[in-house]
Amino acid sequence: MENNYQLSRIHNYVHGLMSRDEMHALEREALDDPFLQDAIDGYKLQQGVDVKQLSLLQQRLAERVEVQASERDKRFYSWQRLAIAMASGVLFLTVCTLILMRYLPQQKASALTEVELMDDAAWEYTIQQSDGNNVEPVEGWDNFELYLLQNLHPENKIESSAQISFVVQAGKVSELNISGIDKENKMWLEDIIQNKFNWKGQIANFYIVYNKLNIK
Amino acid sequence: MNEKELLLQYKATGGLDVLGKLYAPYMSLLYGVCFKYLQDAEQSQDAVMQIFEELILKLRTHEVDNFKSWLHVYTKNYCLMQLRRDKRRPQVDIEENLFESEQKLSALNEDRWEEKDFEKLEGCMQTLNFEQEQCVRLFYLEQKCYKDIAEQTGFDLNKVKSAIQNGKRNLKICMENKKNGK
User: Fold this and answer.
1) Strand order across the A172-179 sheet
2) Where is the RNA polymerase sigma factor 70 region 4 type domain (chain B) (predicted)?
């Protein structure tokens, strides 16, 4: 605003609209301010101040400043977009890593049961001894159960309980009676009892119970 | 925000709005300066805008203490370069420019005057030529404007102006010599 005041003083000076004192004051100021002196000389040469011209200049400056402002906005937004893209990229990778870290070890752990899972269920055999049973495999019931499980084939697995009774004489199985299962399985089980295991005790009377274990 | 703060802010951010705030108040004076040298309205307007463009880089790299006088010198140099490029002989009064640059140099060490300094001044006044002495007396002691002095003495208005400027310069030299001589 000080400069508008200065401009109007220059205008008044050049057009002779000032009092003598004012003229002297401006001249004295100009002697100590070469910038002002030069400007006065210029306007004197131009024979006056053209306000329209000057406001046009101010307008040109404003436009020039505006250009950078909009350029900067554009730059800012594209920079912002880039930052958002990068941030979401990093976030995506982090989530992927977390998911992998969470599921990879589990997949390893479940690899053992993979074969059984294919059958959508697992099973086991347990032995239930009935009254009067006093036999036991020399290898132990646990091994007997395990043997059944390991040597089962999907085709000949026993899906119901089998009642078994026999007599052991001098380590030999006789009077073997198996019920509750089909013929094929019966033969397979007879072979196991007679040939794969040794028995101690005399009277055998037990069940092989088929248990279906639901995994899912 | 004052000029110094604006300068610092511009140097730090490079925001044209800041530079605009700094530059806009001087535009009308700058136009006058440009017109003095280029003597063409269109060219002077372009010069004012072109100087702004040059400041965009200059003010980010240069340390500027007194923006106003720096801007004045920069503008003057720009215009003189422009004239040289156009192979036009710049019509610059050598006396006047000499006065200005000397004035700039001595502006800082202005001491307080004592009684004997005024006696010295009177002595120095005698060393000025007739025109200079008359004009300096009328301007500084009787506080008359150039126009009045021109009317009273019958000198040309421009002659009055340069007589005062040169008289002031000679007085300064004379005063300094006396000071150093004692």
Assistant:
1) A122-129, A203-213, A162-169, A172-179
2) 119-171
CATH topology for the B112-181 domain: Arc Repressor Mutant, subunit A (1.10.10)
Rounded CA separation A171/B134 (Å)? 154
Q: Quick check: A71 pLDDT over 80?
A: no
Q: Where along chain B do its domains lie?
A: 3-85, 112-181
Nearest residue on chain B to A2, judged by CA atoms? B25
Write out chain B residues lying below 8 Å of A10, CB-based: 32
CB contact under 8 A, B28 and A36: no
- Pick the residue from chain A with its C-alpha nearest to B73: A35
pLDDT at A216: 46
Chain A: nearest CA to B178, how far in angstroms? 23
- Position B73 scores a pLDDT of 92
pTM of the model: 0.55
Fold of B3-85: Rna Polymerase Sigma Factor; Chain: A (1.10.1740)
CA distances from A148 to A19, A60, A160, B81 (A): 127, 98, 14, 108
